[in-house]
Design a protein that fits this description.
The chain has 150 residues and is α+β, with helices and mostly antiparallel strands. It has three helices and five strands.
Length: 150
């Protein structure tokens, strides 16, 4: 009986340890999140920006080298100005989009190393202001066949 209990206890501990050591993979939405934080920290804008709720990612690409070099995730996305100062958490419910606020068209490269597959190693973001005509185009719903149609 004691041996059986010890075996069950060891099996349970092994499962817990395996679950604790399992690492989540970094995905494109994670790349969008860290890119948004990076933009807000480094921008000269007074208000925080956050991705639109519909269609925030406009393009995605990933380079996974076979030689152990960092994985590169490249994304294109849009950000919209919120009513919150950038010192506040832009994700909270009160940080709604500012009426007639600015919109930015951005691209980002996020690298992830194998040793830490659940976090960004480096982030580079560039954004540019979107004018009224381009804004109309960016706010249109995406083609349902994207990314399969070119």
């Amino acid at each position: 009986m004691r041996t059986c209990l010890k075996a069950l206890l060891l099996a349970g501990l092994a499962c817990l340890l395996t679950a604790a050591l399992a690492k989540k993979s970094f995905n494109f939405m994670d790349a969008l999140s860290v890119s948004t934080v990076h933009y807000n920290r480094g921008s000269e804008e007074k208000n925080a920006f956050k991705p639109p709720e519909n269609n925030p990612l406009r393009g995605m690409d990933i380079v996974i080298p076979g030689d152990g070099s960092p994985t590169e995730m490249k994304i294109k996305f849009t950000l919209k100005e919120t009513v919150c100062p950038k010192t506040e958490d832009y994700k909270k419910a009160e940080c709604v989009y500012k009426e007639n606020g600015l919109m930015k068209k951005c691209s980002s490269t996020v690298t992830v190393v194998k040793k830490r597959p659940s976090e960004a190693n480096s982030v580079e973001v560039t954004c540019e202001h979107v004018g009224p005509e381009e804004r109309k185009e960016l706010e249109k719903p995406k083609n349902p066949w994207w990314p399969f149609r070119r």
